[in-house]
Structure formats: structure tokens, C-alpha cells
Design goal:
This protein has 15 helices and no strands. The chain is mainly α and 429 residues long. The relative contact order is 0.14.
Length: 429
Amino acid sequence: MNLLSNLLKKWAVIEPREIRGTLISFVVIFTLMASSSILKPVRDSLASGWSDAETSQLFTLTFAASAVAVMLYGWLCARIDKKKLVPVVYSVFGGGFFCFHVAIQVIGKTPLIDKSFYVLVGVFTLFNVSVFWSLMADVFSSEQAKRLFGFIASGASLGAIVGPLVTVVLVRLVGVDHLLIIPSVLLCLPWILLSFLGRSKDGDFTIKGKNQVIGGNPFAGFLLLFKSSYMLLISLFMFLYTFINTLIYFELKNLMVGVDAAHRVQILSGVELAVNILALATAMFGTSRLTKRFGLATTLGMVPAVVALGMVMLSIGPFLWVALILQVIARAGNYAITRPAREMLFTAVDQETRYKAKSVIDILVYRGGDSVSAWAFTGLTHGLGLTLGPIALIVACLAAIWMVVGHCLGRYYSRTEEGSRQLALDPVT
């Protein structure tokens, strides 16, 4: 234990008293991402049998289902105490996937079952991470978040590596349908793990107000979002991220038009592996040090700055290898640096905002950005006839705006944190 404690303190800036809570959080996000990484290939394989129109309809249905899920989540927040809320959400999804497994065994694979499963996985892949980080912002202080969120996020990268490996090994042995049992079981583990976190004797790692109901109504998340300029700025940051990410995705897709299907699979598999390995190494040993040394404002602007520079290079030479390197750096940077830094922002807001408005941003703003960006790219290419070079310059300009927004958010957060510290030192003030 002493060896582990010394190693974590040296490389990941984790104090001995923080090991228990940090490792529990690490394992929870690992199980969530492993489950998601098993479900996504199963989901994506279904789309090959549908037309573009059918797939577009399913994207629209996913957005609508996400809106309903956010309102239902808001309703649950008003009626269930936080100690049970997060495990309930994960258990509901796990039960849903198990029901799909049973339905396939009893009824067989039908278009309705396949498309319903496609939509549910689309909602889950965003919901699971959003709910988890809401809890983390409630467990850890602002100071701890700067040091620990990067290491905790590395659990997500590790889960994203292990999940596909499990799928590749077992899909031939047990079949695609029986793979659904694995995430169904994994999604029950957070209930057990988080119960240990809630019973921790260390005051630093108890769920704040864990027996309290948040209250409010199902639409409170939307109202809280539009009432706060801080939350609107976070929404803009998220929208720009997903907008730019989708544009890069389309650019890469078009650059790979002349590559045969088997080679495309190999290339994209290599990208996924490189992204998760780089993200794992960065999150585990680098993120906390970057945040602590340079501050949140600079950290939030790092990945946007790299994307802006990369898109300028891509506009000069629109080569596949440039796009691939940019994709790896941008996605790994988001997983390891931008995402943990963005989650730290929510430690500066109250609990109702943290649980309700955050889900609106993470799910609806994200899906909305995807949809708007896809149509924007189509308009730029088919409507205005722009080539990849000019589009890359447009993305570079958007990335520069994204960087400025991130810097402003970090400054706002720092002022809020300093104000809270002064209030703690001088309660009369």
C-alpha cells in the first residue's frame, strides 16, 4: 500500500488520504466506458443494413429521445436523493440492455428491436459520462478536482481500450446478441462501488448532502441554463467542440473516399488505439500537472489552439496523414485534458445546476451540435461548392473562437473560486 501511495503521489499528485475515493471513481468510470465501448460496435454494425435516410431518421429520434431522457432525469432529481440517483440511472440502462437481450432470444431480431436498440445506445453513450461527472463534481472539492480529475479520466481511456478488446475476443465465441449481457452486468457495479464511496469515513470523499433530494421540476435544467451566463458560456464551449469535431470527422471521411473498405477499417482501428493510449498516458500522469501549473484558463485553451494550428496545416496540404494525426491529437487531448478541465467548471455551481443543467449541456447541446454541424458541412460543400482547404480554414477560425471561450471560462472559474476562498476566510464579508 505504501508503494502504491508513493507512486500515486509522485506521478499523479494524489495524496494518501485521497487514494480510496480516487480509485473507486477510477473503477466506476472504467466500467462505464468499457460498457459503452462494447455497445457502440454492436450499434454501429446495425447501420450498415440501413439507407442514409433511415440512419438520418434515427439520428433525429436519438435527439428526441435524449430530450425526453433529460426531462425524465430532471424529474428523478426532484424525487430521489443523490446517494441513489446515479446508481438508479445506470441500473435502468443496464436493465434496458438486458431486456433487449431477452427480447432477441424470445422474438428474434426485428427492424423495430434493432432501431430501438440503436437509439438507446445513442442516448446512453452521452448520458453515462454526464451523470458520472455530475457526481464527481459533488464529491471532490475544486482544489482536488484540479489534481484528481485527470487521473480519474484515465480510467475512461483504459475502459475504452479494454471494451473493444473484449468484444473482439468474445464476439466469435458467444455471438453478438450475448455480448449485451456483459454491459448489463457491468452497469450494476457502480451501485456497489458508489455505496462504498458514500460510506467513506473520510470527510473528503462523502457525497455532499447525500441524503437530500435536490427538488425542482423536470424542466428546471433548461431554466437554470438560460438564467446563468456562466452555464451559457459552458454551452457555447460544448457546442463549438462538437461542431468542430463533426466537421473534422467529415473532412477525414472525404479524404478516405479513395481508400478501400478493409484498409479504412485498419486505419480507423489504429486511430482508436492511438487515441486511447495517448489519452490514457496523458490523463494519468499529465493532466493534473498541466492544470496545477498553468491554471484552468490555459488548460481549456490548449486543445483548441492545437486544433486551430492543425487545421491551418490541413488547409495548406489536405493530406490524409495530416488529418489522421490531427484526429488523434484532438480526440486524445479532449479525453485527457479538455474533458476533465471542463468538468472542473461544474464544481463552482450549486447542486441543482450540477445535476440538471449539466445534463442538458452534455446531451442536448452535444447532439444539437452534431446535427447542425453535419448540415453545415453539407451546405459548405454541396451548396457553396467549397473544397477541403477553405473548410479547414473556417474550422481553424472556429477553433480560435473555441480557445477564447475556454480561456474566458477558466478566468470566470478562477474568480469564482477566489471569491469562495475569501468568503471562507472572512464569513462576515
